[in-house]
Amino acid sequence: MAGETLIPGFRFPEVTLSRDPAAQEEALKACAVDPAAWGGLTEPTLWGNDGFRAMSAAGQEIDGYIHVEQRLTLSGTVPLGEAVLFSGETVSNEAVPRGRRIVQRFEVRRADRSLAVVSEHIRLLPDLEKMGAKPSSGSASAPDPVPGTAIARKVMQPQDVVTYSKSVGNEIHFDPEFAARYGYRAPLAQGLMTMTWMAAHLADRLRAAPVAMVVARFKRPVFWDDPLTLVAQDPEDDRQAQLSAVNAEGRVACDLRMEIVASA
Question: Which residues of 206-233 are buried (b: 16+ CB within 10 A; e: fewer)?
Answer without folding.
Answer: beebeebbbbbbbbbbbbbebebbbbbe
